[in-house]
Amino acid sequence: MSYSTADSLHSVTLDDVRGAQKMLTGVARVTAMEGSRYLSQLVGAPVHFKCENLQRTGSFKLRGAYVRIAGLLPEERAAGVVAASAGNHAQGVALASSLLGVRSTVFMPTGAPLPKVAATRDYGAEVRLHGQVVDETLAAAQEYAAETGAVFIHPFDHPDIIAGQGTVGLEILEQCPEVRTIVVGIGGGGLAAGVALAVKSIRPDVRIVGVQAEGAAAYPPSLAAGRPVSIENPATMADGIKVGRPGDVPFRLVEELVDEVHTVSENNLSSALLLCLERAKLVVEPAGASPVAALLREPGAFEGPVVALLSGGNVDPLLMQRILRHGMAAGGRYLAVTLRLTDRPGALATLLGVLSVADANVLDVSHVRTDPRLGLTEVEVELHLETKGPEHCAEVNRALREAGYTVIG
């Protein structure tokens, strides 16, 4: 499938998605569908995970990238391809190009996580680090395309990309024919548009619910305006859906076919990632966990059976560590307390004894002795504790008060 500039403004069809599915046979995995007992109980209906985090390269992006590059004319392939990405699209383009024997150059921000840079190189791309933010990286890639004649592979704003991502929707219908609601994260809109097109063309009764991070939610104002609009400084831990403006091609399909767009907080995202890891034993990146975040935030809003599309699992280990701590805090599993003690031998040991009886695990202790707010014989102690949840936090605070301590923060 190859489109001219004029054709690229036209909609994608179910035949395009079915053609993409044939093209991807033996290339992309038919990823697993796993049930979630915890979420099923919470929602009151069966909930399943569509595990694109287990796809080759760790995300759905391979599907669209392969279909787009496979559809290039011979002379376009000879010129090579170029892309800009901080992670998932970079790896999808790199592997797809290698499989098709096409030279690829991928521009990535200078601060891109080292594991993602290494993976992109390992898949066969020439990686060039440029710019501090993705917009600068994107501009560099487009300049390279203009100078060299390489074909720019957009991460979401092209019919071939959308057709490739739509194959996920066909698999969902095959694996869970009784599905009533599909929940999918939205960044630029390529995945949501493709899934909605594929599913609604066959099962118009299935509801498609999109999810965006509150700090990067460009679709609600765009849908209200009836056209893609930009938001200033999108900010979220979910890099995979941190897009400031919807794509022109996916926007039209999302506007027509996606039933609702929900937003989720950073706390919702980190709690969802923690749930996937602890309950489902699945490593999922924040963008991939966004459908789970929506289910946790409003469990009564979704008619079942529900399929939550886990779009990717490429998360930097350092970010994972921070997110897990954030998720545990959001779930009441961390407690930070500050209190003052008399600065005498044994005072800290006595305090730790109270916490031990309360079954709180001490993660970190810091002392302040020189603050002018403190009396001559006082010391301020800040404790970071691991707890079992909100009720346990309350029990720990009560135990401290009953032991005569005043918690000041």
From TrEMBL:
Listed SUPFAM superfamilies: ACT-like, Tryptophan synthase beta subunit-like PLP-dependent enzymes
UniProt domain ACT: residue ranges: 336-409
CDD domains: ACT_ThrD-II-like, Thr-dehyd
GO biological process per UniProt: isoleucine biosynthetic process; L-serine catabolic process; L-threonine catabolic process
Superkingdom of this protein's organism: Bacteria
MF terms in GO: L-serine ammonia-lyase activity; pyridoxal phosphate binding; threonine deaminase activity
Oligomeric form and interacting partners: In the native structure, TdcB is in a dimeric form, whereas in the TdcB-AMP complex, it exists in a tetrameric form (dimer of dimers).
Protein family according to the UniProt entry: Belongs to the serine/threonine dehydratase family.
UniProt name for this protein: L-threonine dehydratase catabolic TdcB
Higher taxonomy: Bacteria, Bacillati, Actinomycetota, Actinomycetes, Kitasatosporales
